[in-house]
Specification:
The protein has twelve helices and four strands, in the order H-E-E-H-H-E-E-H-H-H-H-H-H-H-H-H. The chain has 390 residues and is mostly helical. The protein starts with a helix and ends with a helix. It has a domain of 238 residues: MetI-like (MetI-like fold, Orthogonal Bundle), CATH 1.10.3720. Helix 4 runs antiparallel to helix 9.
Length: 390
């Protein structure tokens, strides 16, 4: 093969599948560098003159270098001045609160120790059983006294007062919180609370002059019908009886029980009431299933507080109750007279002329103090237990 043939072969165009051949010649320099027409053949020339940009990345600078490059924050020369927070007020209030609590406890302990110290000599010299005897003889050097009669009259009048006052107080509280509109419940609540502001002597005079004669026919009817029961036995003067005193005590403790019960019922969760109503419960069913269970512990504690007030009432009971004659037969009837611890001490305050007499009456006061303290402690326990159960 010659050189010319080689050159011819090199310059010959490659064959196509159809047997035709296309000649590719060197690009001709024309005005349009992308296209040229030569000998009826299309020559496509693409000239790419743009360079591909090269992106160069740098490794992140270390944190130490960044911190070195950043400007250092300016630091104040004298530092930041904060306001001084004083705890003097907190310490003073905490000390005052603790001191008040300790003072109340010490006051109760002091009263108990004082009563016990003055009553102990007379109790040691007493010739009768202090808990079971009904005698009360403190004249001269002979000391024969007991609290059986005083304890019965005190407990009987207080329990009767509670039996009459608590249902009425709970009914009034439910009416004020569940039935009456707020515009009407406000004035009614104010009137009920006003009963607590009436002095005891006013209640005593009203009970002796007005209430006693008014209840005398009802007392006579009960004596005729069920007088065979010792508790409702016949008495000489039913106008100054334990029954009348119990009614007056019920009126006196009514505001206390009503106010506490009203506050407890008003705090019944609204969701419980609406849930009961949504289930189709009537108003009474709502009260029975939602309101009363929620306020049960509060009503019990309110009743105990009212009982403590009834046990310690003095002036009204002293005015109403008829004192039994000396050496008269004892009767447990509610239509008989008698004396409570408080009325006994108040009626005989003029006889405190010797340590022995004074000690006998103070011994009775000590029993009343213990009973009242126990009742209030029981009310506290019941209230806390009911609150924990919720």
């Amino acid at each position: 093969m010659s050189v010319t043939d080689t050159d011819a072969n090199v310059g010959s165009p490659p064959a196509t599948p159809n047997g035709r051949s296309e000649s590719l010649s060197a690009p001709a320099v024309t005005d349009d560098p992308s296209r040229s027409l030569t000998d009826g053949h299309v020559h496509i020339h693409e000239h790419i003159h743009a360079r591909v940009p090269v992106v160069k990345t740098r490794a992140p600078a270390p944190a130490a270098a960044v911190r070195t490059l950043l400007p250092a924050p300016a630091t104040p020369s004298h530092g930041v001045k904060l306001a001084k927070i004083s705890h003097v007020g907190d310490r003073v209030f905490r000390g005052f609160a603790r001191g008040s609590a300790v003072m109340i406890v010490l006051l109760v302990v002091f009263v108990g120790v004082f009563l016990l110290a003055l009553a102990l000599p007379s109790l040691m010299a007493n010739q009768d059983n202090f808990l079971t005897s009904r005698n009360w003889t403190v004249a001269g050097n002979e000391l024969r006294f007991g609290i059986a009669g005083l304890l019965w009259t005190t407990v009987l009048s207080s329990v009767l007062a509670m039996a009459m006052a608590v249902p009425v107080a709970v009914g009034v509280a439910l009416c004020l919180t569940q039935y009456l509109h707020r515009r009407a419940s406000g004035p009614v609540s104010f009137v009920v609370d006003l009963l607590a502001a009436v002095p005891s002597i006013i209640f005593g005079l009203w009970g002796l002059i007005v209430l006693g004669p008014f209840l005398a026919p009802a007392a006579g009817w009960l004596i005729d019908k069920i007088g065979w029961i010792p508790l409702f036995g016949r008495s000489v003067d039913p106008k100054g009886s334990v029954f009348v005193a119990a009614v007056v005590l019920a009126i006196m403790i009514l505001p206390i029980v009503t106010a506490i019960s009203r506050d407890v019922f008003a705090q019944t969760p609204r969701d419980h009431i609406e849930a009961a109503l949504a289930l189709g419960a009537t108003r009474w069913e709502v009260i029975r299933t939602a309101v009363l269970p929620h306020g049960r512990s509060g009503v019990i504690s309110a009743s105990m507080l009212g009982l403590g007030r009834a046990l310690g009432e003095t002036v009204a009971v002293m005015i109403i109750l008829t004192q039994p004659a000396p050496n008269s037969p004892y009767t447990p009837s509610i239509f008989a007279g008698g004396e409570t611890f408080a009325s006994k001490i108040a009626n005989n305050a003029s006889e405190f002329d010797s340590p022995s007499k004074t000690g006998a009456f103070i011994a009775a006061g000590l029993v009343l103090f213990v009973v009242t303290f126990a009742v209030n402690a029981l009310a506290r326990i019941i209230a806390e237990r009911g609150h924990t159960a919720k």
